[in-house]
Write a structure and sequence with these properties.
- The chain is an alpha/beta fold.
- The protein has one domain: Vaccinia Virus protein VP39 (Rossmann fold), CATH 3.40.50.
- 45% of the residues lie in helices and 22% in strands.
- Strands 3-2-1-4-5-7-6 form a 7-stranded mixed beta sheet, with helices on both faces.
- Strand 2, helix 4 and strand 3 form a beta-alpha-beta unit.
- Helix 1 crosses helix 6 and helix 6 packs antiparallel against helix 7.
- The longest helix is centred in the N-terminal third of the chain and has 23 residues.
- It is globular, with a radius of gyration of 17 Å.
């Protein structure tokens, strides 16, 4: 199990909360900078997988600073419940949501993805953007999302993946293991956080391996949509 801080005590969950609380002030800047702004396109592509739903009730797990929840609000859901483990990330999300006057649509919730504070069969859809690799127990987190979704409810996951073709595979590996940790560490003042990002991305079970994890949790995989030559992937699954 990859943890953000190898020299600190505590569970992965505790360390992830500490990490995001530390890097929250510079998180958005680094997200857009290190992805060259392409992460905005990826989030819009996630929302495209929800557009056909009529007045849905949606859960955004690991919402961070709320960027995906804000995008989802554009499809006129009944409500978006945006949950995150980090209080500091939610504080920034709150500012952004209030600035856009979306506080009646987006409900922020401090909570644990592996112990969701919602009843069974509650949501029409759920999303997770760059969050599942931070779950301490992947199966527990996916099973909790399955529990709170209604029958035939939709799960859309956006996560980093590994390009497979030469030369992008080699270029990506060099960027994510050398350039990104150095650059991210300087700007965030937390070198460990931006060393953890590539380590967790490279160890994440992407592609068909992730669809197997979805199936174990009770989902039926519908789509695997590689983004930007496979740097990230969108997974669409249905609760069965």
């Amino acid at each position: 199990m990859v943890k953000p801080y190898k020299n600190l005590e505590g569970s992965k969950k505790e360390q992830v909360r500490t990490m995001f609380n530390r890097i929250a002030p510079r998180y958005d800047l680094l997200n857009h900078l290190l992805s060259f702004g392409i992460d905005n396109i990826w989030r819009k592509n996630v929302v495209k997988q929800l557009r056909e739903l009529k007045a849905p009730l949606i859960l955004d797990v690991a919402t961070g600073t709320g960027d995906l929840a804000i995008q989802i609000a554009k499809i006129d859901p009944i409500a978006v419940y945006a949950l995150d483990l980090s209080e500091e990330m939610l504080a920034i999300a709150r500012e952004k949501i209030e600035k856009r006057r979306l506080h009646t649509t987006i409900q922020l919730k401090h909570g644990d993805s592996e112990e969701l504070p919602f009843g069974n069969n509650f949501f029409d859809a759920a999303t997770v953007a760059f969050g599942v690799r931070n779950f301490e127990n992947l199966q527990k987190g996916l099973s909790e999302i399955h529990r709170v979704l209604r029958q035939d409810g939709r799960l859309v996951v956006l996560e980093f993946s590994r390009p497979k073709k030469f030369p992008l595979k080699q270029l990506y590996h060099f960027y994510i293991t050398r350039i990104l940790p150095w650059w991210g560490g300087i700007i965030s003042h937390d070198k460990d956080a931006y060393s953890y990002l590539p380590e967790s991305a490279l160890q994440f079970p992407d592609g068909k391996d992730f669809t197997k994890e979805l199936q174990k949790a009770g989902f039926e995989s519908q789509k695997i949509l590689p983004q930007t030559f496979g740097v990230a992937t969108i997974y669409v699954a249905i609760k069965k």
